[in-house]
DNA sequence: ACAATTTAGTTGACCTGTCAAATAAAAAGT
DNA sequence: ACTTTTTATTTGACAGGTCAACTAAATTGT
């Protein structure tokens, strides 16, 4: 009468998030490894530099809002990147609280060097994904992201 | 002749991964917050317990392989969960290196309590995603995951 | 049998991520 | 003008994540 000896599978409730977490772990490891050998940058550093180059803004707050990287982490990371000569901070004229961030020439050089290989990686990642599928993919990400802002579950 | 005063946007090369990273940050914050109030479990603890309940295995190695959580982290987490009375370790008969993990009754109770709310969250996340779109979404995840295993970029 | 290799799990060191409290400068309300 | 509230950034404390070296037990090759 061994019936539920192994009280097995029902629903892996958090399957979407489970899959995403695992994918994320794998993507991070890949990016970290590529960046390390190709530029010496850490993943966060790369993300910060890319975001600053890409978007039309340059303060910690904006960086934190767009990337969802914790502002505490950013504050420290930025300080260390200024030390390393990757970023420059210039105080805002009007608002004495805010600092504007700009890439140094050195940072731009490093990014330029890392870019082709990171671009190749991006191409590799998306090689077998059709344009339509990618569009759906982004659409689903948008929806998940919107829903994930909800803190109270009904 | 101010031309490229702001040497702006080209391609945010790592756009897919950028989007995924941001989504992940948001999902983690949501799950962490829900779990904390509904069960006192941390996100990793929940992931470990769910994975053990869901899959047909129970050793650290297998857990590490399937979740991509670092085995070092797992080793320590498992030890602390044994301390807390969430897991039990029983040594393998044949292979003296391996330990089999099982949820304690306490862990099962906690999971049972957290499950409905986590299930509700999952439903909320996928509420507006059609079956077809979700299928495409998983397909793309599979491809990204496969491509992310490549460490050398051509 | 036994040396060489592989494998499961542990440990140390160190970086990343998160939360909350603290500071200090604006902005809003009175 | 002055108190209250909001906002940008910093700091402290601590959990999570990653890497590499290590131990001990299996497995493989001879």
Automatic annotation (TrEMBL), chains A, B:
* InterPro entries associated with the record: HTH_MarR-typ, MarR/SlyA-like, Tscrpt_reg_MarR-type_CS, WH-like_DNA-bd_sf, WH_DNA-bd_sf
Q: Which Pfam families match?
A: MarR_2
Q: Which residues form the signal peptide?
A: none
* Gene3D superfamilies membership: Winged helix-like DNA-binding domain superfamily/Winged helix DNA-binding domain
Q: Which UniProt keywords apply?
A: DNA-binding, Transcription, Transcription regulation
Where the record annotates domain HTH marR-type, the positions are 13-146
Answer yes or no on keyword Transcription.
yes
Superkingdom is Bacteria
Name of the molecule in the record:
MarR family winged helix-turn-helix transcriptional regulator
């Amino acid at each position: 009468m061994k019936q539920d000896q192994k009280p097995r599978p029902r629903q892996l409730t958090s399957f979407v998030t489970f899959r995403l977490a695992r994918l994320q772990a794998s993507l991070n490891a890949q990016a970290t490894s590529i960046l390390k050998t190709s530029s010496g940058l850490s993943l966060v550093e790369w993300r910060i530099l890319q975001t600053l180059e890409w978007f039309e803004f340059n303060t910690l707050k904006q960086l934190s809002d767009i990337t969802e990287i914790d502002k505490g982490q950013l504050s420290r990371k930025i300080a260390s990147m200024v030390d390393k000569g990757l970023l420059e901070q210039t105080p805002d004229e009007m608002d004495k609280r805010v600092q504007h961030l700009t890439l140094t020439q050195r940072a731009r050089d490093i990014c330029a060097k890392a870019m082709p290989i990171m671009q190749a990686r991006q191409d590799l990642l998306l090689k077998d994904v059709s344009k339509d599928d990618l569009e759906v993919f982004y659409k689903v990400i948008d929806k998940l992201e919107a829903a994930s802002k909800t803190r109270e579950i009904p």
